Amino acid sequence: MTHLQAGLSPETLEKSKVELKENPDTLHQDIQEVRDMIITRPDIGFLRTDDAFILRFLRARKFNHFEAFRLLAQYFEYRQQNLDMFKNFKATDLGIKQALKDGFPGVLSNLDHYGRKILVLFAANWDQSRYTFVDILRAILLSLEAMIEDPELQVNGFVLIIDWSNFTFKQASKLTPSMLRLAIEGLQDSFPARFGGIHFVNQPWYIHALYTVIRPFLKEKTRKRIFMHGNNLNSLHQLIHPEILPSEFGGMLPPYDMGTWARTLLDHEYDDDSEHNPESYNLAVEELEQDLSPKTMKRSQSVVEPGVLKRPDKEKREEENMQPLLSLD
């Protein structure tokens, strides 16, 4: 075991060897091979290339050198192409702070039975008058940056649960295809985290409509890890034990305190609401529609139909009568 593996428990060390093909005897060579590829992308500013940093990309791509380098390049390219997103990229930024305090994201204290960190999102908490969807994305990315420092989570990964209870059609109408694509680029294509499952619960019909929009941009591996539970919490409990879940998900723990993770990141600044940051990210929806990267918009314009969330007047479908597109019975 090298010093780079010092933070791993014996169980996780074995898991990294078996599942990720991590070999302590060739670890430094693996890292150097990825680092040597940097010269092939002079168009990207690789702002960090130390061993520990590159290692998390190797773990995210099961020590496939080329795929690890591609992820590393996309990580920095995403930040170059979306510079405004990463201005004042810290928990005290006004938009990020407000999103964090509303539980975007929530982070459960207990790991699941695979050692994965569980993130929770209560979609209805989104106060669109105070912060944007992009502020929520920034808060999630900032949180992942903090958590991915833990080598145990680099190996074991994360699980995401999204509760769509009381998430209105009006709120959903603000989730434009461009915004959703921006999130997919940032989380699926440009961040060194292993997501073991993405669970939707209590989702209304219009969330299924949104899913059909983003589905073409999801990798096959990602699609297989998205579970639409609807109101069937028993199917969720088959994958995540209720003993570690709050009561909102039919678990045995008390209701989740939305400020838990925000207090961890903000510490004594949690209760300070006096800050007004002129650099807070506030990109208009129109700009997001027009100013995503060319590779994004070429693809999205070819598949996205206008008015995707237009309510079907003829059918007048009520949320409670809708059947999930994907369900776990």
Strand segment tally: 5
Tell me the major beta sheet: 5 strands, mixed
H and E string: HHHHHEEHHEHHEHHEHHHH
- H/I helix tally: 15
**Strands ordered across the widest β-sheet:** 1-2-3-4-5
What oligomeric state is this?
A: single chain
- Please give the radius of gyration in angstroms: 20 Å
Low-confidence stretches: 275-286, 289-308, 313-329
Cα shape: globular
Termini separation: 44 Å
Q: Assign a percent range to the helix content.
A: 40-55%
- What structural category do the secondary elements indicate? alpha/beta
Average pLDDT confidence is 86
Strand content: 5-15%
SSE topology:
Elements: H1 10-19, H2 27-36, H3 51-60, H4 65-81, H5 94-101, E1 106-107, E2 117-122, H6 133-147, H7 151-156, E3 158-163, H8 169-172, H9 177-189, E4 195-201, H10 205-214, H11 220-224, E5 226-230, H12 233-237, H13 260-266, H14 285-290, H15 294-303
Parallel strand pairs: 2-3, 3-4, 4-5
Antiparallel strand pairs: 1-2
Q: Mind explaining what this structure looks like?
A:
It is a single chain. With 329 residues, the protein is α/β, with parallel strands linked by helices. It is built from 15 helices and five strands. It has helices spanning 10-19, 27-36, 51-60, 65-81, 94-101, 133-147, 151-156, 169-172, 177-189, 205-214, 220-224, 233-237, 260-266, 285-290, 294-303; strands spanning 106-107, 117-122, 158-163, 195-201, 226-230. The chain has a five-stranded mixed β-sheet. The N and C termini lie far apart (44 Å). Residues 96-257 form the CRAL-TRIO domain. Residues 291-329 are annotated as: Disordered. Residues 308-320 have a biased composition (Basic and acidic residues). It is a peripheral membrane protein. Required for normal morphology of late endosomes and/or lysosomes in neurons. Binds phosphatidylinositol 3,5-bisphosphate (PtdIns(3,5)P2).
